[in-house]
Each structure stands twice: as C-alpha cells, then as structure tokens.
C-alpha cells in the first residue's frame, strides 16, 4: 500500500471512530454523568471510575495499547480523533495515569510478572494510579529530583516528597521517579518505582488551588519500604522511561477538543446574550474577537492533523506534540478569558459548594459555575504536563538545533 | 479643589501602615472564612483612621478627598487585598449620596457612613439587564451584581422614572418589605447580591443643587472607573514585587529562573505595563475634573487599557510562578481573582473601549 493510501485508510477509521464516540455520547452514556460533565460540574472518584469502566466496555480504555496486551493498536490519528471528539462533547476527563502513562511503561519495559500483576487492573480501573514525578525543587527541571531510594536486601527504602500529584487522595498506586544513585549524573541515577499507596510512611496532603478544590496533593514518603520487584526495567534507566511516558503525556488530542468546546460555548453565549438590543455576537468588537479565535482554531486544527499524520507515517520532527500543546492551551485560555468576561456579573460569582450538587450557580447560565471552575483549573494548562516554556525549549533544541 | 499632597501622603501612609500591622496575607485567611466576606474589626479600624470619611466635606469631619486621595487608598486596597467595603460604600455609594442627597439625607447618613455603622451599596445598571422602573415612590426591577450588597444596610439604586423617562437615584433599606436579596460570593472572596425590587417603597435622592440624576450617575460611574484603575495599580505593584523576587530565588537547571533571557524580557514587558498603568491612572484622576470630552477619552481609555494590562501582568505572574501560582496558599492567585472582580465592575473593557474610540475619533 502506498503511503498516501495508508493515511486515507487511517483517516477513514478515525472518522468512523468519531461517529462511534458521538453515538456513545448520545445513547450509551448515563444521563447523570452526561449532564454533570455538560455543566462542568465536579466529578468524584466514583464518577471517574464509572466513566473509565464505561470506556473500557466500549473497548476504548486501552485501545491505543498493542493487541497482545488487550489493545487495538490504534494509530496516533485514531487516538487523537478519540480524545478530540470526547473533549468536543464535553465528556469527563479520561484519567491518564493508568491507561496512558504507566500502562505503556509497564508493557514496554516491565517484567512479565509486572505485566500480569498490573495491566489488567489498569485497563479496568480496578486500581487507581497517580504520578509521582514533580518535587518542590524539581518542576520544569525534572532531573533535579531528590527523592531517594536505597536498596536494602529485597526492598528499597524511599524518602522524599512529591508535589502536584493529581488525585493522590484516590490512588491505590503511585508510579514514582526516584534517585537510586546519589553520585551519578542528574539523569542517570534515576529509577522508576511502583509504590503501593497503602505502604506505611506514605502521607497525602491536599493542595488547594484557586478553583477552591484540592485535585492535587503533596505526597510525603518517609522510610517507605518498596519491594525490589516493583522496580520497572533497570535501575538507573528511569529517565529513559520517563521520557517515553512524557511523550505520551503530550500527545493530547483533548487539548484541541477543549479549545473547540469553549469556543463553541462562547459562540452560543454570544448568540443568546443581547446587550443594548444587539446580540453580543453582532457587536463589532466581540465579532472580531470571536472571528480571530475561529481563525486561530482553524490553524491549530490543521496543524494538529498534519502533526498527528506525521506521527503516523514516521515523518515527525519531534516538535509536533509541543506545537499542539502550546497553541491549544494558549487558545483555550484566551477563549475562556473572553467567555468569562462576557458572562459579566455571572463571570465573577462563584459558589464552590454548588459545583458538587445539582444546584444552579448564583447567576447566569446553568454552566456558569462550571465554566469558572474550568477557567481556574486550566489556568494551569500552560504549566502542567510540561510548561509552555519547556515546550518551547524542546522545539528550540530538538527541532531548530539551537 | 484638590486635596493637598500632605493629606494624600498621610492617607497612603496610614492605610499602608495599618495593612502592614494588621492585614498580612496570613491575617487575611480569617477574613476569607468570615461569613460577611470582610472583617468587622478591620472595618471599625478603617473608620477610626478616618478612611471612611475620605470623601466627606471637611465641615462633616471628612477629608474632602479628591480622585488622587481616593486613588491613594484604593491602591493600598488593591495591593493588600483589603476585603472591606471601602470601594463599594466609602468611595462609590458615599460619593453618590454626596452628589444627590438632600441636606437632610446627608445630615442623617454621613455620620453613620463615617463611623462605619452603615454600609451603603450602589446598585447600578447592568448592560445586559433592563433598568429598574420607578413609578411614583415604588421601585420594580432587578440588579444583578451588587458588590457587597449582601452586607449593605441601605442601597442606592439607579432607576428610570416611568413618568418622565429620566434617570433617577433612589434609596431603600436593604431589609424593606419587597426587597429580595440573593447573596453570593465573588471569585475574590468578597460578597455580592442579586437584588430584586417588587414595588418597593423607596426614597428619592433630591439634591438642593438641582443637579440631575443623569449627570450625577455619569460622574459617579467615571469616578468608580478611575478608583478601580488605582486598585488595579495596587494589584500590579504587588504582583510585580513578588514575581521579580521569585525570578531571583527560584532555581531550576542550576540557576535562578530569572537568568533566562526569555523570562527577563517578559518581565520587562510587564514592568512597562506597570509604568503605563501608573501613568494612565494618574491622568484619569486629573481628567475627572476636566472638560467632558477629554474626560470620556482619558477615563475610558485608561480603564480599558488598565484592565487589559493588569490582566496580562497577573497572567504572567501566575505563569512564571508555575504550579504554586495557581495555589490558594500563595498570594498570586488571590491577586488574579481580585482583578477578575475589578474588571467586571462599572463598565467592562469593551464598553470603555467603545466610549474611548468615540471620544478619540470625535475631533
């Protein structure tokens, strides 16, 4: 098959997948979950577990895994289409820590015993995972991490502190970057450990963020005993595995879908809101602003498709994921800022408690509170998962050779 | 007449010293948890310091403060994130009462405003909703985002007179029968209310001077916009101080993050915005007393630019702080939220920009 034909086949598959996702959203997804996520309400652990299992039932939770581990071997294009479509429909977040992050590391680098022990529970979200990467002194500079794992007989003793650990309060397991060799170069002394959150010495402290919630945590590790069999791959190779994982973290089609969704929401709001007898969308300033967002979205979408197709046929330059993340998150934040501003008084009225219940926000449309929550949460979208600055460094170094 | 420089320096110093001693970011946690969304104790202290009488005439024991004097206090309110209804009551509502109240109304209320026993809030039009209608002495309609309308004892309300079709300003007790208040919190932690009036009996404000309500409303909206510029300046000043410091002390890749030229240039751009915000705020304060067209041009231009500039600085401050920038435990995210509320009050950016363009291109 020629390369041009091959990509046509993938495009067809991706388009069919989008249709399946839309049908699933309309016909299969439970109404309460759909309504909650439509209004951008806060989801609890139970909601997320239900959601992840629902995806698994459709065969989608690990469809990007190879067939031998229960996946469908989705191409980057199908994966992108899937995440993009879910986000456009304002579906719940596909919690990535198990299925997207640690799962692939385990099947790519783990032992047979680890594959048998962990992959099934990851696929079904029987076990909930969290990511122990960042530390107070190691954010953008991940290689500066200090958490120490000392080998003592058949186990490691781990001491240190992780930070920004999303949903650590719900997690059964933590995959963790630790330093196993104090004297080595920053990147070569790092190892990849799987830590049972029930181990003595693990303490989770919530960090409240400006949306009023504590999605993220500090995780303190004090003399935590971790069986040596929970080391993934080889000691000292953790950095290689981490880079493999970060690549997965950054191939987020969801970013494009979120940008589409908030832009759609802005347009709806601008059509429905009449100020001084004229719909917002027909007021010159707003019309121009929305028009510019539309144009930026068009460029993002086309560049993202081109990038993902390059990943499919192996012609990527290494900057594709950074491009999608930088452009996608920046557009998302700009659109969100305009949406919140255009909500007027409702755009500054915030009732945190109402976001947990079926209660309406104090003012404005039904989803005004949820929009604000997302505005706050995603202010960090240009920070988490590799900040915009780090993404630009990646392109400068890796693509432009600077 | 303008307030003398000595008085302004005194105001600024006493407000800043008070905040230093009693209103640290740490002290403020208790205020955020207070059901009123402000500290009654601090409110009493601000009254003691004479700050609530900022705008009152000297004959009424006030400081007769002009826009520069108001700005000095608003700047501190912004830079220290004061939650008390200084802006809502002492600056805006008191200012409107001074313009539109009768001698008797002022004599009755000014002492209570000065000693803090009365919080007065001004419920103004919202571009997206219909004006309240005044039929005789009965008021009907709804006001959405009334800043600190949740804790106000009385409300001033802008309305349209059903008979004359002219704007009017009325006063009503917040607990009067027929007044419905839905109280809520703003993103920055202060309170607000949605207030509905169902044929409520109200008192008209009728000044002996005969100044029209329309003129007084136009004046107070501009004064409010200029005061908000000063609050933005205070926010920008604080955010720049903490961010500059952070770039010097936060180390990644073996050196301070401020050693990266990419970040240096971005911080310089923020500094340029800070200087522009300062200049525009000062110009807008002067323009309030000037001719109408010049006032519209400078005040609305300043407000439109300052909202945008301050937002940019706050966004950059969060971004340069990284993860800690969005946490509740660091002040940066609180400045970010305070600015959101600020930008939604008294005419948003687009409304101010349109007015600026009309004035600038009128010549």
What is the typical, i.e. mean, pLDDT of chain B?
Answer: 96
The structural domain count of chain A equals 3
Largest sheet of chain A: 4 strands, mixed
Report the portion of residues of chain A in β strands. 5-15%
* End-to-end Cα distance of chain A: 38 Å
**Overall outline of chain A:** globular
Strand-pairing-aware structural class of chain A: alpha+beta
Uncertain residue ranges of chain B: none
Computed Rg of chain B: 21 Å
**Main sheet specs of chain B:** 8 strands, mixed
**SSE class of chain B:** alpha+beta
| Average pLDDT reading of chain A | 93
Main traits of this protein?
heterodimer; A: 402 residues; alpha+beta; Butyryl-Coa Dehydrogenase, subunit A, domain 1; Butyryl-CoA Dehydrogenase, subunit A, domain 2; Butyryl-CoA Dehydrogenase, subunit A, domain 3; four-stranded mixed beta sheet; four-stranded antiparallel beta sheet; 12 helices; 10 strands; 48% helix; globular; B: 363 residues; eight-stranded mixed beta sheet; two-stranded antiparallel sheet; 11 helices; 53% helix
Write the layout of secondary structure elements.
The complex is a heterodimer of chains A (402) and B (363).
Chain A: H1 3-28, H2 31-38, H3 45-57, H4 76-88, H5 96-109, H6 112-123, E1 129-132, E2 148-152, E3 155-163, E4 173-179, E5 190-196, E6 202-207, E7 216-227, E8 231-232, H7 238-250, H8 254-272, E9 274-275, E10 278-279, H9 284-313, H10 320-342, H11 368-377, H12 388-399
Parallel strand pairs in A: 1-4
Antiparallel strand pairs in A: 2-3, 3-7, 4-5, 5-8, 6-7, 9-10
Helix pairs in contact in A: 1-4, 4-8, 5-6, 5-7, 8-9, 8-10, 9-10, 10-11, 10-12
Chain B: H1 5-22, H2 28-33, H3 40-48, H4 67-79, H5 86-100, H6 103-115, E1 120-123, E2 132-135, E3 138-147, E4 154-161, E5 167-173, E6 179-185, E7 191-201, E8 203-204, H7 213-249, E9 251-252, E10 255-256, H8 261-287, H9 292-321, H10 331-343, H11 349-360
Parallel strand pairs in B: 1-4, 2-4
Antiparallel strand pairs in B: 2-3, 3-7, 4-5, 5-8, 6-7, 9-10
Helix pairs in contact in B: 1-4, 4-7, 5-6, 5-7, 7-8, 7-9, 7-10, 8-9, 9-10, 9-11
């Amino acid at each position: 098959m020629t390369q041009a034909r091959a990509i046509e086949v993938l495009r067809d598959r991706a388009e069919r997948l989008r249709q399946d996702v839309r049908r699933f959203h309309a016909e299969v997804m439970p109404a309460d979950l759909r309504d909650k996520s439509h209004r951008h309400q806060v989801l609890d652990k139970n909601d997320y577990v239900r959601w992840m299992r629902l995806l698994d039932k459709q065969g989608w939770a690990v469809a990007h895994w190879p067939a031998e581990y229960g996946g469908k071997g989705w191409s980057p294009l199908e994966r992108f289409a899937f995440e993009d479509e879910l986000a456009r429909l304002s579906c719940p977040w596909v919690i990535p820590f198990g299925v997207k992050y640690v799962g692939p590391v385990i099947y790519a680098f783990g032992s047979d015993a680890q594959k048998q022990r962990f992959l099934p529970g990851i696929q079904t979200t029987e076990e909930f995972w969290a990511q122990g990467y960042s530390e107070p002194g190691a954010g953008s500079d991940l290689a500066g991490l200090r958490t120490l794992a000392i080998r003592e007989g058949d186990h490691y003793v781990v001491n240190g502190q992780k930070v920004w650990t999303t949903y650590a309060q719900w997690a059964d397991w933590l995959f963790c970057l630790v330093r196993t060799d104090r004297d080595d170069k920053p990147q070569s002394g790092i190892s990849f450990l799987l830590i049972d959150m029930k181990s003595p010495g693990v303490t989770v402290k919530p960090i409240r963020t400006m949306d009023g919630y504590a999605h993220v945590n500090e995780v303190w590790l004090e003399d935590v005993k971790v069986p040596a069999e929970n080391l993934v791959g080889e000691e000292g190779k953790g950095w290689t595995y981490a880079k493999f994982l970060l690549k997965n973290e950054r191939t987020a089609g969801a970013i494009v879908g979120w940008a589409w969704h908030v832009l759609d929401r802005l347009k709806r709001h601008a059509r429905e809101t009449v100020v001084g007898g004229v719909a917002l969308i027909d007021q010159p300033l707003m019309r121009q602003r929305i028009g510019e967002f539309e144009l930026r979205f068009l460029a993002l979408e086309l560049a993202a498709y081109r990038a993902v197709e390059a990943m499919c046929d192996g012609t990527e330059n290494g900057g594709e994921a950074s491009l999608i993340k930088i452009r996608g998150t920046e557009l998302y934040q700009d659109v969100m800022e305009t949406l919140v501003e255009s909500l007027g008084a409702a755009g500054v009225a915030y009732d945190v408690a109402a976001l947990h219940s079926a209660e309406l926000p104090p003012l404005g449309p039904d989803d005004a509170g949820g929009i604000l929550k997302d505005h706050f949460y995603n202010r960090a979208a240009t920070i988490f998962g590799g900040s915009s600055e780090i993404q630009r460094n990646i392109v400068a170094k890796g693509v432009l050779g600077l | 007449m303008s307030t003398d420089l000595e008085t302004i320096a005194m105001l600024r110093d006493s407000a800043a010293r008070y905040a230093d001693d009693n209103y640290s970011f740490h002290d403020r946690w208790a205020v955020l948890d207070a059901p009123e969304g402000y500290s009654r104790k601090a409110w009493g202290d601000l009254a003691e310091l004479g700050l609530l009488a900022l705008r009152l005439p000297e004959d009424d024991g006030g400081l007769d403060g002009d826009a520069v004097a108001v700005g000095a206090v608003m700047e501190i309110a912004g830079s220290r994130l004061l939650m008390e209804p200084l802006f809502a009551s002492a600056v805006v509502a008191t200012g409107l009462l001074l313009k539109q109240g009768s001698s008797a109304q002022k004599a009755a209320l000014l002492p209570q405003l000065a000693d803090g026993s009365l919080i007065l809030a001004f419920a103004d039009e919202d571009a997206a909703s219909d004006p309240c209608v005044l039929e005789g002495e009965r008021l009907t309609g709804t006001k959405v985002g009334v800043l600190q309308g949740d804790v106000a004892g009385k409300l001033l309300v802008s309305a349209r007179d059903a008979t004359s079709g002219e704007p009017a300003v009325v006063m009503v007790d917040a607990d009067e029968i027929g007044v419905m208040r839905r109280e809520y919190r703003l993103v920055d932690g202060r309170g607000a209310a949605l207030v509905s009036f169902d044929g409520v009996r109200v008192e008209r404000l009728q000044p002996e001077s005969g100044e029209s309500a329309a003129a007084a409303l136009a004046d107070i909206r501009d004064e409010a916009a200029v005061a908000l510029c000063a609050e933005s300046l205070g926010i920008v000043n604080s955010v720049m101080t903490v961010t500059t410091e952070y770039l010097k002390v936060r180390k990644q890749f073996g050196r301070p993050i401020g050693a990266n030229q990419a970040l240096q240039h971005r911080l310089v751009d923020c500094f340029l915005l800070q200087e522009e915000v300062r200049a525009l705020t000062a110009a807008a304060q002067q323009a309030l007393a000037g001719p109408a067209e010049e006032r519209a041009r400078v005040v609305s231009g300043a407000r439109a630019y300052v909202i945008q500039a301050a937002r940019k600085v706050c966004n950059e401050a969060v971004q340069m702080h990284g993860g800690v920038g969005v946490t509740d435990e660091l002040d940066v995210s609180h400045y970010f939220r305070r600015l959101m509320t600020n930008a939604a009050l008294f005419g948003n950016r687009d409304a101010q920009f349109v007015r600026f363009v009309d004035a600038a291109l009128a010549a």
